[in-house]
Write a structure and sequence with these properties.
The structure holds two protein chains of two kinds.
Chain A lengths: L8 H17 L6 H20 L14 H18 L10 H25 L10 H38 L13 H22 L19 H18 L4 H27 L5 H27 L9 H18 E2 L2 E2 L2 H7 L2 H28 L44 H29 L20 H9 L11
Antiparallel strand pairs in A: 1-2
Chain B lengths: L7 H28 L5 H17 L17 H15 L6 H18 L5
The chains are: A mainly alpha, B mainly alpha.
């Protein structure tokens, strides 16, 4: 007979946290497929618990919940796992499944009995508000552990192939590298997830006792608008986007890249960030802007004049435009560096835009999927229920929802026939690949940015390192690099 | 009057405004793309695009927005025409959303007229 689970919410969170740390201590490349399959379920459970935490009195209600953003990215990764050839169907990871079950159980307890009954006893001083921090910390560690496993999987595959080649093993018996591109794309998207989670974790550190520090000051309007945009872009792209939606997403992403160019240049001009680093990264950011623009132009050619844009996406784009205008724009055009320095914390704004560029990588992957598989944008709706191999896939498993209902909601424009779009779809997919590559380059380039401190003389440049890597060192984690192919 | 209850004449006028806004957006995007990644025209172009899409949202599905391309290749003139069309409509009994759209287009005209948009 099974023992009844008598753990309280605080116990369940502590167990989840312990399991999350174990994923880093005991990661095997063989576990990579299972961990990827389980990841989205863990994120969903975490989002469920997080949504039950009462709003904080210190954080404005207009601030989007970072867990909502992470859930959007996690869902996208989950959909890709469902349709991708690798990892394919198979077993789930026991440890991460247990984490998801713990969080689901915690959510059920709170939904049934409320927080008062389930919080820790007064003498250990736990605070409800630390629950969100602990949950995000757990998924952050799980994401990192999954990324470590996938990296190990890729390196292991390459080593085995090299060994087989040296031994002149028959071709049919050598391991195949077909899964490597899919694995690398998941690595890139897990990195986006990690960086988004890390931006929260770094300002809300959680110790082993589960006590959180005071939350950071409320974010700037630009930060909120970027986060809301990211959430809505993911939601719209997951919900049968029409070509006008894809144009809107691409144009707005291009604006984010341009704003990043302008603000980082201003920050360098004012000595707030390393000038040499900005000089090196600017071409990457500009290239990202150009490719997003080309993507918008391509999708413009397949949209109907009577097509509709998702009104929630429109609102998010409009809010972001207003935030950019308020932050970095004057009636004469982009604000000058001195003007920006007077009105902004330039170093902080650079970090905010850096995160916006990170998030754009996942948006690029999702748009590629829309172009390649359809998701309602380029193929008839019934085709949405088959995966890339033509195997039936339940639409709900991929996170598809009905188009947003609400005032002014209208049915989507019928998609053009597949016969007409196949050559176009190939061009759209190729362009999406270019966007992914340039977005990744831009993110890699911005990772070298560090804020400068006022100094009288030149300082050695050898201290450049990513803020994210510094955070990982603080947490005692670090990922071995994917070895370059020889 | 609910947005969806608008009469055919009003709907056709709003459709005309959509076409004007889209043509203006197209021209500003061409300029923005030609100026390169740092073009400040992007902000105006995005604003006009969003206004055009929001105007489209006000119309019932059966209204055909595709029609003759408005004449003219100066964005601010096209925006003024759209603003005048909406201003004329807003003298009657129209939903608040049309008034909001008109106010939005007025802002865009101002933006296009300043040295950044000119």
């Amino acid at each position: 007979m099974l023992e009844r689970d008598r753990r309280r919410v605080s116990d369940l969170l502590a167990d989840t946290d312990a399991l999350a740390r174990e994923t880093l201590l005991d990661v095997s490349p063989d576990a990579a497929p299972a961990m990827l399959r389980t990841f989205v379920h863990l994120v969903q459970s975490a989002a469920r618990v997080s949504s039950l935490v009462p709003p904080s009195t210190t954080v404005p209600t207009s601030e989007p919940d970072v867990m909502v953003r992470l859930q959007a990215v996690g869902r996208g990764i989950g959909r890709s796992v469902a349709v991708s050839r690798w990892p394919g169907p198979g077993a789930t990871d026991d440890r991460m499944s247990e984490m998801a079950e713990n969080l689901t159980r915690a959510a059920v307890l709170v939904e049934s009995h409320g927080w008062d009954v389930q919080t820790a006893t007064p003498d250990d001083g736990a605070d409800i508000q630390t629950v969100r921090g602990r949950v995000i910390h757990a998924v952050y560690l799980a994401a990192h552990g999954t990324a470590v496993a996938v990296t190990g999987y890729v390196n292991d595959l390459r080593e085995r192939l090299e060994t087989a080649t040296r031994r002149n093993t028959r071709l049919s018996e050598r391991p195949s590298l077909k899964s490597v591109p899919a694995a690398q794309s998941f690595l890139s998207r897990l990195d986006v997830f990690e960086q988004l989670a890390a931006s929260y974790v770094s300002s809300h550190p959680v110790g082993m006792a589960g006590h959180g520090s005071a939350p950071a000051a409320p974010g700037m309007p630009l930060e909120s608008a970027l986060a809301r945009w990211d959430i809505q872009a993911h939601r719209t792209l997951a919900s049968q986007p029409a070509p006008p939606d894809l144009v809107r997403v691409a144009r707005t992403q291009a604006l984010i890249a341009t704003t990043a160019v302008v603000v980082t240049a201003a920050a360098a001009d004012q000595g707030k960030v390393d000038r040499d680093a900005v000089q090196r990264l600017t071409p990457s950011l500009e290239a990202a802007q150009v490719e997003w623009t080309l993507t918008a132009n391509q999708w413009s050619r397949v949209r109907s004049p009577n097509g509709h844009t998702d009104h929630l996406l429109l609102r998010a784009a409009s809010d972001l435009r207003s935030a950019v205008a308020a932050t970095a724009y004057t009636p004469n055009g982009w604000a000058s560096p001195s003007h920006l320095a007077e009105h902004l914390d330039l170093a902080e704004t650079v970090k905010i835009l850096q995160l916006g560029m990170v998030a754009s990588v996942d948006v690029a992957y999702v748009m590629r999927e829309v172009a390649a598989i359809g998701h309602g944008a380029t193929v008839p709706p019934q085709a949405m229920t088959t995966d890339a191999q033509g195997q039936p896939v339940r639409a709900t498993d991929l996170g598809y929802t009905r188009p947003h209902a609400g005032l002014g909601a209208t049915p989507r424009q019928p998609a053009p026939t597949a016969a007409r779009l196949d050559p176009l779809r190939r061009r759209l997919v190729n362009q999406a690949d270019v966007v992914i590559a340039t977005a990744n380059s831009a993110v890699a380039a911005t990772a070298s940015l560090t804020p400068t401190t006022p100094r009288p003389a030149a300082q050695p440049k050898s201290q450049k390192r990513s803020n994210i890597e510094a955070q990982k060192r603080n947490l005692g984690v670090g990922r071995p690099p994917v070895e370059p192919r020889r | 009057m609910a947005v969806r209850d608008m009469d055919a004449e009003t709907a056709e006028s709003v459709a005309g405004a959509v076409r004007l806004l889209r043509r203006a957006a197209e021209l500003v995007w061409v300029r923005a793309d030609a100026e390169g990644p740092r073009s400040c025209q992007q902000l105006l172009a995005l604003g006009v695009d969003v206004a055009a899409d929001e105007a489209r949202e006000l119309l019932p599905d059966f209204v055909n927005v595709g029609g003759p391309v408005p004449v003219g290749d100066i964005p601010v003139d096209l925006l003024r025409s759209a603003e005048q069309l909406l201003c004329h409509l807003c003298r009657g009994n129209v939903p608040a959303s049309l008034h909001a759209l008109q106010a939005q287009v007025v802002e865009l005209v101002w933006e296009a007229n300043t040295s950044a948009g000119a």
